[in-house]
Design brief:
The longest helix has 14 residues. A hairpin with a 2-residue loop joins β3 and β4. By secondary structure, this protein is of the alpha+beta class. The chain is built from four helices and seven strands.
């Protein structure tokens, strides 16, 4: 897994660059990178993050062996941070783009929280809204 310093360095060089979104159609863009925060544009909406938020997502990925757009709230900010994680951690994660899910490739041990069936949508209309980003 990358460190935050490496992520900062990479994102600083990616300002204005687009990246593919996980779970939603379209692309995201790196808008701003600062010492304490960074910003992405996800299908026209700005999402501001702190570096702590990125580290929390990465820790969640390590302890649970997976992280999904839905478990982070399902909004444009969740899509942005999961997509960014997929981009930055491409060597360490497998992506299930249709489900908005990242899985740790070389996971060790038992995950702290395993997938709960209650978190999965029961109808296609919910999936369609999420995929279309509305």
């Amino acid at each position: 897994m990358l460190t935050v310093e490496t992520a900062k360095w990479r994102l600083e060089r990616m300002k204005g660059a687009e990246f593919p979104l996980v779970f939603w159609r379209g692309s995201g863009r790196v808008v701003d990178v600062g010492e304490s925060s960074f910003a992405l544009q996800v299908r026209g909406k700005r999402a501001d993050y702190t570096w702590d938020r990125l580290m929390n997502v990465w820790q969640r990925l390590e302890t649970n062996h997976s992280v999904s757009v839905d478990e982070l709230g399902g909004g444009h900010d969740a899509v942005g941070i999961v997509s960014l994680t997929a981009l930055l951690q491409a060597d360490d994660v497998d992506m299930v783009a249709a489900d908005g899910l990242l899985r740790l490739r070389d996971a060790q041990g038992v995950p702290v929280h395993q997938d709960a069936p209650a978190l999965k949508p029961r109808t296609w209309s919910v999936w369609r809204r999420k995929i279309d980003g509305s």
